[in-house]
UniProtKB/TrEMBL annotation:
It comes from Esox lucius (Northern pike). One of its GO terms (biological process) is cholesterol metabolic process. The gene is NPC1L1. The chain crosses the membrane at residues 287-306, 343-361, 618-639, 651-675, 681-704, 724-751, 757-782, 820-841, 1055-1076, 1083-1102, 1108-1126, 1147-1173, 1185-1208. InterPro entries: HMGCR/SNAP/NPC1-like_SSD, NPC1_MLD, NPC1_N, SSD. Signal peptide: none annotated. This is SSD domain-containing protein. Belongs to the patched family. SUPFAM superfamilies: Multidrug efflux transporter AcrB transmembrane domain (SSF82866).
Length: 1238
């Protein structure tokens, strides 16, 4: 930041002659000047941002100042004021005005901290105007400049001596001053290549004295001398050791102390955040482990000590309920089996009627609509943000690497030897630039060729952007996306060494000083992007350590597009642009000359991925269903002899069962499409799988029970089917009702995807049961008649002469279960062993920013409330590991105040002519312009209400440049469009942008949302205390990810709630359908809970995140668990064996074999196929999770539950025997276990 420069109105004449010479024998005496007045332009400085006007060499006594001269000095350099008539100085009025203009440019960044701005100008006033100038500086180089016929010797370089104590204190007062528009530190723009992190007092002053920085008119060699050191100081020189102010001190002119955000010493003493809660322990051991171990001990004792009891009234009620349901279903089954064709036709008509609704089905693919409820807080806040500020811009990003490219050393004239990674090379940078300009396509919506400018986010020119207005962040932007700038090179001399400087020198400078408008090389190029904003290095390169940007291993290219509502035509254009972006990258990736390997994503990628998982993995699902179908068709067959294979097979029955499942799903989807409830791809993938698991189990139980049954004398086939259905239908009803009620209650979830899944699944389960009780019974009746006539499947005209066996077929599972598995499992020893992750802070309408109290409650500069909105965010950012905030919020209020400050030169009004009183842009050069406001003595500038309303529209329309360094996003931080702003309504919605730390995991996103909300709530309560603030005023945090991660704030409690709702009907229905059998219902519930809990445990061990998709699968787990458990529980309750162990053996052998064949063996083959799916979503949440659910259900249903029943099962054997004796008087009973009476 240069100390001396002048306005363009002080340019010298057009002709100059430059003859540089070294000065020797300089004199240093108190009261004498080393130079005086202005000689003209420094011919050794070219391409400067301001005219490099240099002073004339003039060793002479300091001048006594006249009245006008004195007033100018008092205004610019008040530290030199000794009173009117008593003040002497070594600078002319012309020099003072030039110094004032030069300091204004630098102080524009520092004025928010008065003591810092005062210290910055202090030494430049000393070196330019001090009456003892010659004892502070040492002229080292001059040049003869001929201007307008006059030859004068001008100073073009000098040494400036100052004490380290003054330099250190001045630097300390400025090192924490922030730039509200970026959230960065001002010192970072004033320290050249070192940035804020590596800046020191010496480097700070060195940059100020470097004429190549575009601001300094000549070279100043700052010498910082420790106190007491004299050896390095020329004779007569006395290093300046004036008084530098601390940032927490007032200035002599009355300026207030700096704010806490700019000065740590000004901050109030705050208590540190409370310590994190200690883990729950009991006696130094994990408390949850102790509780679980204690419960396990009680359970083992109960297993060892509890013995059977006598029959109760509830036990008798259970049998009465079973007999009633059995009789009803027997009559129903006989009726259906007697009229199979009518039933099948009626079923087809009903399914067809429901399925016609599929014409109106809507598939939800928008992730926001899938996972965020319309009435959720995050969704409402998103809608409010999008209403006033437009939707969050769309991000499209490309990350490129070049493996195998060797690194190299570049010996820079300015920066010394630097190691460059292989990807930071000119040919790859040019290739990247070429790639980023390729995306164009024909748009039917626009009826012309569309390009980036049609959809890009252009913060500085949103109404009619050109390509150079588009917010594209990449390394080529350091060169303004110009091939000429990248190829530019020039010879440069520094310290007597001449070398070529090129793009590498510019790159090194820009990544360390991205806010610079001119580098320090003779290339004299800007670091700002062509759209007018800085490109911070983390947006251009990646894969580096400790700010070593030249060693970066990746180039980053980011396109920011405007976001639009889906009904807006430009939304389609943005989607087309992103699709073209993806297509070009895919083509480029496949091209043989491609030097990169890269990863890329578009805003649409998440939605595309959801669609892609269906498109690419549909074959996998089809194979999965085909495997299940083949298994069912084969497993249902009896296969008594080779010659009867085609007769005894159940291919058509298996196909019919699959069709019943498919029809139930289609009918469910059609019904909800009729009533306008949208579906999703997850429903298409999960619901058929779930209903197939439920339906296949019922099919196996029904068919296997029929195959094991012997027809009674004089009993018709239809009556036998009815009787078998009467035996098994109550069990099927128990499971189906439990599951459907479970899913209907699951629809109470606030998550749209979970709610719609639960509704679709519940109705599909109901319809599946209804179709099984009708269409499948009819289909089995037809198949039995075919089998009775020894006709082959498919080719029914062919008959087989081999007769059917005289006894029912047990299959191979039943004997294994009865003879081996059940006895081993229920052995006395075995029974005991078995138990063994930018965010905005948005203010809603209602807060009055135009009043001083309102501004002070928000801003962070001098005079602001120490607990203002931005200051509280600053405090939070000091604990990033707890708040997840890395950078404090920028503030349009601070930018507005800085813009109004007359020291910035940004806000000016025409003082004469036809435009008198109108806004005069700072970039315009006009003597007719004057400042908008006077600077108060205390430095705390605040506009009144009238001034606020008068100048805010001008501020919003003032495009940032070298003279106006405001936030480029300011225009979008106040409402969204300036036409929404009314001078009469200053209580508008605004937003303040901060940055989170790097968030990578769901836990971090969730914690960041939670802490941001807590902080916003705290800010809300403070701001509501301001007069006239409505009670419903609110500050809320918003970033694009919150709407997805809000579910994690409540997903544990909501998951427990939803799963509890699902578990409740399994208990209630089991009790009711078993005749108020509370014991069986409790054991049923306990086993299902264990399956669910164990599933969650295995999820953790296998790296399956708990989210909404996992919750859907856990709800599914409850449904599938019912199939594993409830059939076994009912079978045990109805057994007539004399002891608990015998009844458990019988239930395990008969029903366990059906459950194993119908649920486990139906699911497992299909699940294993899903392991070959390409989508990670399918692999994790469908393959892994469903495999876990099936295996745990199998283990609990066929291992744990039989043992549990053998200890705690119902005691109804006597009542069962009594009831069966009564029922046997009318019809003989055949024991399906031994089949001895057939």
């Amino acid at each position: 930041m240069g100390a001396r420069s002048v306005s363009p109105h002080h340019c010298p004449g057009p002709f100059m002659l430059f003859a540089p010479q070294v000065v020797s024998g300089s004199r240093h005496e108190p009261g004498y000047c080393a130079f005086y007045d202005e000689c003209g332009r420094n011919p050794s400085v070219g391409g400067s941002l301001i005219p490099p006007i240099v002073p004339c060499l003039n060793y002479s006594p300091a001048r006594v100042l006249g009245p006008e001269h004195y007033q100018e000095l008092k205004k610019v350099c008040p530290m030199l004021d000794r009173g009117e008539g008593q003040t002497t100085a070594c600078c002319s009025v012309k020099q003072l005005k030039s110094l004032e203009r030069s300091l204004m440019m630098s102080k524009a960044l520092l004025n928010r901290c008065p003591s810092c701005a005062d210290n910055f100008g202090h030494f430049h006033c000393i070196s330019t105007c001090s009456p003892n100038q010659s004892v502070t500086i040492n002229v080292t180089r001059t040049a003869n400049i001929t201007s307008q016929g006059t030859v004068r010797e001008a100073v073009v370089a000098y040494q400036a001596y100052l004490s380290t104590s003054f330099a250190d204190k001045a630097f300390d007062s400025c090192k924490s001053v922030r730039i509200p528009s970026t959230g960065g530190l001002a010192i970072g723009t004033m320290c050249g290549r070192y940035g804020s992190a590596l800046c020191t007092p010496q480097r700070w002053y060195d940059f100020q004295g470097d004429s190549s920085n575009g601001l300094a008119p000549l070279d100043i060699d700052f010498r910082l001398i420790p106190e007491g050191v004299t050896g390095a100081v020329p004779a007569g020189i006395v290093p300046y050791n004036g008084t530098a102010l601390g940032c927490n001190e007032k200035t002599p002119t009355g300026g207030e102390v700096c704010s806490c955000q700019d000065c740590q010493a000004s901050c109030p003493v705050l208590p540190p955040p409370p310590a994190l809660p200690a883990p729950f322990t009991i006696g130094g051991v994990d408390g949850y482990l102790v509780i679980c171990a204690t419960l396990l001990g009680f359970l083992i004792l109960a297993f060892l000590l509890i013995h059977p009891s006598e029959v109760t009234c509830i036990d008798r009620n259970s049998l009465v309920a079973q007999e009633f349901l059995g009789s009803w279903f027997q009559a129903w089954g006989t009726l259906i089996a007697s009229h199979p064709f009518k039933v099948l036709l009626a079923s087809a008509v009903v399914v067809g009627a429901f399925a016609t609704g599929l014409m109106y089905i809507e598939l939800t693919t928008d992730p926001v609509q899938l996972w965020s409820a319309p009435d959720s807080r995050a969704r409402k806040e998103k809608d409010m943000h999008d209403k006033y500020f437009d939707p969050f811009f769309r991000t499209n990003q490309l990350i490129l690497t070049a493996p195998g490219r060797p690194s190299y050393i570049y010996d820079s004239l300015i920066f010394g030897k630097q190691n460059f990674s292989g990807i930071i090379s000119k040919d790859l940078i040019l290739e990247l630039l070429k790639l980023q300009t390729r995306i164009q396509f024909w748009s039917d919506d626009l009826n012309r060729t569309a390009s980036l400018k049609d959809v890009c986010f252009a913060p500085l020119n949103p109404s009619n952007p050109s390509l150079t207005d588009c917010a594209v962040n990449s390394l080529p932007q350091y060169f303004q996306n110009s091939v000429d700038n990248i190829n530019k090179k020039v010879n440069m001399t520094k310290l007597g060494v001449t070398k070529e400087v090129d793009w590498k020198d510019h790159f090194i400078y820009c990544v360390n000083s991205p806010l610079s408008f001119k580098d320090i090389t003779d290339l004299k190029m800007s670091c700002m992007a062509d759209y007018g904003a800085p490109v911070f290095p983390f947006l251009a390169v990646g894969g580096y350590e400790n700010d070593s940007y030249t060693n970066a291993e990746a180039l980053i290219l980011t396109f920011s597009l405007n976001n639009y509502p889906r009904e807006n035509v430009k939304f389609n254009i943005a989607m087309e642009w992103e699709q073209r972006f993806l297509d070009i990258l895919k083509e480029y990736q496949m091209s043989p000359g491609n030097p990169f390997t890269f990863a890329y994503m578009a805003e649409r990628s998440l939605e595309d991925e959801i669609n892609r998982t269906t498109a690419e993995d549909i074959p996998i699902f089809m194979i999965s269903y085909a495997v299940i179908f083949v298994y069912i068709s084969v497993a249902l067959g009896e296969y008594t002899s080779f010659s009867r294979i085609l007769v005894d097979s159940k291919f058509l029955v298996g196909l019919g069962g699959i069709l019943v499942v498919g029809c139930s799903v289609l009918a469910s989807m059609g019904f909800y499409a009729w009533i306008g409830i949208p579906s999703s791809l997850i429903i298409l993938q999960v619901v058929p799988f779930l209903v197939l698991a439920v339906g296949a189990d019922n099919i196996f139980i029904f068919v296997l029970e029929y195959q094991r049954d012997a027809r009674r004398p004089n009993e018709k086939r239809e009556e036998q089917i009815g009787r078998v259905l009467g035996n098994v239908a109550p069990s099927m009803l128990l499971c189906s009702v439990s599951e459907s009620v479970c899913f209907f209650l699951g629809a109470l979830s606030t998550m749209p995807a979970v709610r719609s899944f639960a509704l679709y699944a519940a109705l599909a389960v109901v319809l599946d049961f209804v179709l099984q009780m009708t269409a499948f019974v009819a289909l089995l009746s037809l198949d039995c008649k075919r089998q009775d006539r020894n006709r082959c499947e498919v080719v029914c005209c062919i008959t087989v002469k081999t007769p059917a066996p005289s006894k029912p077929n047990e299959g191979f599972l039943l004997p294994i279960m009865r003879k081996y598995y059940a006895p081993v499992l229920l052995h006395p020893v075995t029974r005991v062993i078995v138990v063994g992750v930018p965010t905005y802070f948005v203010t809603t309408k209602g807060f009055d920013f135009s009043k001083v109290m309102g501004m002070n409650a928000v801003c962070s500069s001098v005079g602001c409330d120490p607990f203002s909105l931005t200051q509280k965010i600053q405090y939070a950012s000091e604990y990033p590991q707890r708040s997840y905030l890395a950078v404090p919020a920028n503030s349009w209020v601070d930018d507005f105040i800085d813009w109004l400050n007359p020291g910035s030169g940004c806000c000016r009004l025409y003082t004469e002519g036809p435009d008198e009183g109108k806004f005069c842009n700072a970039s315009e050069s006009s003597k007719r312009c004057g400042k908008c406001m006077e600077k108060p003595d205390n430095g705390v500038l605040r506009p009144n209400v009238t001034q606020f309303n008068r100048f805010l529209p001008d501020f919003l329309g003032n495009r940032p440049d070298l003279n106006v360094r405001t936030n480029i996003h300011i225009q979008t931080d106040i409402l969204s469009h300036t036409d929404k702003y009314s001078h009469k309504d200053i209580k508008f919605a605004t937003r303040f942008m901060a940055y989170h730390t790097a968030l990578t995991t769901s836990r971090e996103f969730t914690a960041a949302l939670k802490t941001a909300r807590e902080l916003a709530h705290n800010i809300t309560l403070t701001m509501r205390k301001i007069n006239d603030t409505p009670p419903d005023f609110e500050v809320f945090p918003y970033t694009v990810t919150y709407v997805f991660y809000e579910q994690y704030l409540t997903i544990v409690s909501e998951g427990v709630f939803i799963i509890s709702l699902c578990l409740l009907p399994t208990f209630v229905v089991c009790c009711l359908l078993l005749g108020m059998d509370v014991r069986s219902g409790t054991l049923n519930l306990l086993t299902i809970i264990m399956i669910t809990v164990d599933t969650v445990g295995v999820m953790t061990l296998w790296g399956i995140d708990y989210n909404a998709v996992a919750l859907i699968n856990l709800v599914t787990a409850v449904g599938i668990s019912v199939e594993f458990v409830s059939h076994m529980t009912r079978s045990f309750a109805l057994s007539i064996q004399p002891t608990h162990i015998e009844r458990a053996k019988e239930a395990t052998a008969t029903m366990g074999s059906a459950v194993f064949a119908g649920v486990a063996m139906t699911n497992l083959p299909g699940i294993v196929v899903l392991a070959f799916a390409k989508a990670q979503l399918i692999q994790i949440f469908f393959f892994r999770l469903n495999l876990v659910i099936t295996l745990l259900g199998l283990a609990h249903g066929l291992i744990f539950l039989p043992v549990l029943l053998s200890y705690f099962g119902t005691f109804v054997s006597q009542a069962k025997g009594q009831l069966r004796e009564l029922s046997s008087n009318s019809l003989p009973v055949y024991d399906n276990m031994t089949f001895e009476n057939q």
